[in-house]
Input
Amino acid sequence: MTKIGLLMSGQGSEKVGMGNDLYQTYPQYRAVIDQVSAYAKLNLPAIMNDATLLGQTRYAQPALVAMSVGINALLADADIAVAGAIGLSLGEYAALITSGQLSLAEGMPLVVQRGALMQAAIGDQAHAMAAILKPDIAQVEAACATLQAQGQQVSIANYNSPQQIVVGGTEAGVTALLTALPEMRALRLPVKGAFHTPLFEQAALNFQTALAAVDFQVGDYPVISNTTEKPFAPDSIRTTLVAQMAQPTHFETGLRQLADSGVTTLIEVGPGNALSKFARQTVPNLARFNISNADQFETVVASLKGESIND
Amino acid sequence: MTKAEILKKVQAVIAEQLDVAESQVVPTANIREDLDADSLDIFEVMNQLEDDLEVKLDPDESIVTVQNVVDYIDQTMAK
Output
């Protein structure tokens, strides 16, 4: 039997024009984006079509959550039932909203505030990140620890798949790590900030106040946290979301847990397909789809409906 | 390895890494524009080809089309 897990895009997947054809084709999608815009107090359709605005963390983050929530509304309208979800970093907010753990009305202002705090934390500091392919994780962790002891800021920020991790820190810290391990296959990434590293500890503390004012409910399905590697739980969700900003993401673990829970089919919702690639590298036996546009949405619905008729 | 064999390998690796159908990975395809790859995708493809073909490739080599990758590997192997 088909059991669906959703993958919600994180920052870095935004693209100018994201979701435009969905917005033009589906009134339900348009209604969600317009509703989200109102809650976020932002003109999201304009942001999604402006490279300068979309290049800023404070605007990119609500735009991405809006698109994922909008596509999820289309899936719900098509009666596609979801068994579990994971999001990469920011994508966790879309997952918490669509699972019903966080309301759109409270969630969107929270996402806007988080983006603004993160952007402010970067300020004009030089942060850097680099992807490392086929990493020897123990070796990278040891090298980071050695450099940290020397006062450098560098650590593993994302455990994305067995094939890929991302390290982040100050420009000096990342350069020192890449110099210390020259045989590593590393590629510097064009990023705004070294998210999920201790460079965001102060921003995370500042985010506590905003979180304290928000209500969380028990959701319709589990969302597995990048930070704790367990499903979000109402009593610890605020602590987890604070920790999330400055601690590494474990997307690989989330993918394995979805598979272990019996999920057979993954649908990535958002502008890109980066998460599907991590899924292919981590849980290759699961079926994969991604929805960034109307054609892909129709393909997914046709294929899932076709399957259920044959079941 | 003949160029045809290299092409077959390159097509398989690109299809796998980019999660696209092998039929889309034609020699004239522009890897970034037609196959929607970013710099990290191309880096992953070149690294996988290094491992599979046991050849040392320069990650800074400028690559646009699938045929460019095949030619570059062919030249590198001939050295």
In short: The mean pLDDT of chain B is 92.
